[in-house]
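Data card: per-record layout.
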Amino acid sequence: ILLLPAIGVSINMISMFAFLVVLGMGVDDAIVVGENVYEFRQKGMGHMAAAIKGAREISKPVTFSIITTIVAFVPLLFMPGTTGKFWAPLPAVVIIVLAISLLEALYILPAHLAHSSSEPHTGFGRRIHAMQQSFSNGFSRFVDTHYRRLLDMCLRHRYITLSSAIAIFIVVGGYGTSGHMGMIMMPQVAADEIEAGIRLPVGTTPDQAARVAGLVTDSTRRMFEEHNLYEVAEGVKTNVRRGSFIDVEIVMRPPDEHDTSAEEIIALWRDQIGDIEGVSQITFEAERGPGGWRQDISVDLSHSNIETLEAASQALLLRVQEFEGVTNVNDNYDKGKAQFDFTLLPEGKNLGLTPADVGQQVRDAFYGALALRQIRGTDEIEVRVKLPKEDRKDIQSFADLVIVTPAGAEVPLLEVVNVKRGAAFSSINRRDGRRVINVSLDVEPKRQVSRVLEAIQTETLPDLRADFPGLTWTFEGSQAEMRESTAALWGSFGLAIAVVYALLAIAFSSYLQPLIVMTAIPFGVVGAIIGHIILGFDLSLISFMGVIALSGVVVNDALIMIDFANRKRDSHSAFDAIHMAGLRRFRPIILTTLTTFGGLTPIIMETSRQSAYLVPMAISLGFGIVFATAIILVLVPCLYMILEDLKSHAGNTRTA
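The structure for this 656-residue chain is written out next.
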């Protein structure tokens, strides 16, 4: 906590979650060191000697295990966009705590253990000690009987064990990537607000906008009364923006006070409002926390010809509405106010007229020509001459308007120009210098977003380009952010895996043994998927962030097991060494798994809205560690022996 201000991190929801995440991890190395010291104490060594020998023996694998965990969290520091800023405190806190915990485990903890009291316990302490001894003896009996038999069986049938593990990975991984599980940007949480966004034609008067706002507000209040929604929502807010946009918001009560979803209210609201005369577009959205209002799919269309671009956007609007579950289809194209476009005819040019001459005289007729400017006190008064008000409102005035040529002659306006009705642009949207029209939509349920997105990418847009040659498109909004974040995550993940491999290669002085340790990573992913399935969560970007962090955590137990086996190879066979390593490391592996999962359990079980963004990462970490531990205890020893088999086979081949 003392170091957080120095790195710009405050005490907030994410940093507190980071402390919960690292709560179990931070004691893992202490458990491993303490358990190793305890083993030497059981052999009759004194407190000081056991503390020194136990800490020294385990210092190398513990140091590398902490470093690999830190490396796995580093990619989360470089997440781009809003998501990266939102989650930045998590890896920062975890890295700091892990670094400090390493110092504590290797120096402070052994010092405490070296000066432990050997005096017999009395009173309440005696009863606690008796309970601890009873549990420890029972745990040891379980290891010496049940786990020993399981390990013997798996080692002797190691190829069947490996095949079974691969089958589990294929089945679960295939299910996770088959589309049966939803893939979403952010976890779905209860909405704070629900908004109806109403777009009016450009040029709508304030009175007309107020009338529409009143109609929508009245419809909303009737909906509240008919469906008794006052227990669900606190009230309604209406805001008219720039005359052409109206926002009507329903402020929701906390989700623990009701069980009505935002989707249910939106369905009622859409039916209640219906179609309103004079409204260009109505969209309904639910505000769900970080990122604010965002639509599920957003496409920017671009073309060199604005008429073609407009036609293509309208065609896309119609086609995406045919997809099941698609709602709130809209675009950002607005034709703007009606206008008359003047084109100078050859007859006008022959009379010496220019477009500027004609434009100025038409403007003077309707907006006024400056006739007099007079100073009265501190005020300047302008006198302008223009057509009478009733003529300025009559379109026939164009037919009667007279233009004066440079020679002083008077000619009717329509004899020198061609007049055509058109529309002014209320705004011109560009992205990277290209004129674009954005088409956006929502999908319900959210797990179907990836399916609809794939259909639009592979079918709808290519067909649209066939109808409108030269059309290009890009995905923006939440899709662009997810694409950018996912690409950054996978790139960082690949680099982190490479660094972890390099660290393990240094620790083992081998290029093959790190591969054994790293088999825990894919099975950690399997555990994360199983956790999401059990708890009914869709996979999200936050879930993938948890998987990346998991990759550095799950290798720790395997690292320490392989290190122990390597040290025993000097005096034992490969089978005996890995068998002893499995039995010896079972206790610390189980304890570290339980502490890590226990630290994450409160978040996994939390149901508040604030925790909804944290739960997927906690599920990935917690269930991934539990499943990977089960795999490590049986598969890593088998892989160790399979590697020895391959070495023996290679040696026999060279000898032959």
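Known properties of this structure: DSSP finds 22 helices and 17 strands in the chain. The CA atoms of residues 87 and 482 lie 14 Å apart.

See the next section for split statistics.
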